[in-house]
Amino acid sequence: MNNIGQHIAQFIGLVLLQVLILNNIHLSGYINPYIYILYIMLLPTSYSRTTVLLNAFVIGITIDMFQSTGGLHAAATVFLAYFRPAILRLISTQGGSEFEKADMKSIGLGSFITYTVIAVLTHHFILFFIEAFRFSELFPTLLRALASTVFSVLIILILQFLTNRSR
Predict the structure, then answer these.
(1) Helix (H) or strand (E) holding 145
(2) What is the pTM of this model?
(3) Which ranges of 3-137 would DSSP assign to H, the alpha helix?
(4) What is the band of 19 on the pLDDT scale with cuts at 50, 70, 90?
(5) Assuming Cys at both sites, which of 41, 60, 121, 149 could form a disulfide with 73, CB separation 3.0 to 4.6 Å?
(6) Phi-psi bin for 44: left (phi > 0), alpha (psi -120 to 50), beta?
């Protein structure tokens, strides 16, 4: 399958997984796993910032349409996409230029876990803070972001192990 076909299949698969299964998981009112951002995290590093931002907006607004959240997911996902190069430079030894893709197989388990935790925590904090939209909710929002990040990272790691094993 060509590169565009793989991206389309990954987009559809993650959106369906998010909408049909994960949107129905709300543990203790604090844990809401959002793994659709894996699509943005796995885009090739050679893509221009504009391409990554547009992809982020499209997947975010798609999730917003299914959840009727009026752009919350689009905003958080575009924020993540904007800071993705900085996160990759942070975990990289050569400024993020030594790998073409940021998947577990390309960057290694340790770097992928670090990348995933930073990316997911960034996305979740922005998403939940925009949703609460007040500083008085800072600590509950942070707790919710941390709890959701742990669960989301576990699901993302499982997905990466399953997809890397099948290849």
Answers:
(1) helix 138-166
(2) 0.90
(3) 3-20, 38-41, 49-67, 72-91, 104-107, 109-132
(4) very high
(5) 60
(6) beta
CA 65/CA 46 separation, integer angstroms:
29
Number of domains the chain is built from:
1
When the pLDDT of each residue in the chain is averaged and rounded to a whole number, the result is: 89
Domain at 40, CATH number:
1.10.1760
Stronger pLDDT, 101 or 155, i.e. the higher one: 155
Residues in the chain: 167
Quick one: CA torsion of 20, 26, 87, 73, rounded to 10 degrees? Answer: 60
User: If residue 167 lies in a helix (H) or strand (E), which one and from where to where?
Assistant: none
* Average confidence (pLDDT) over 42-69: 94
Please report the pLDDT score of residue 87 as a whole number: 93
Which one, of 43, 39, 46, lies nearest residue 60 by Cα? 39
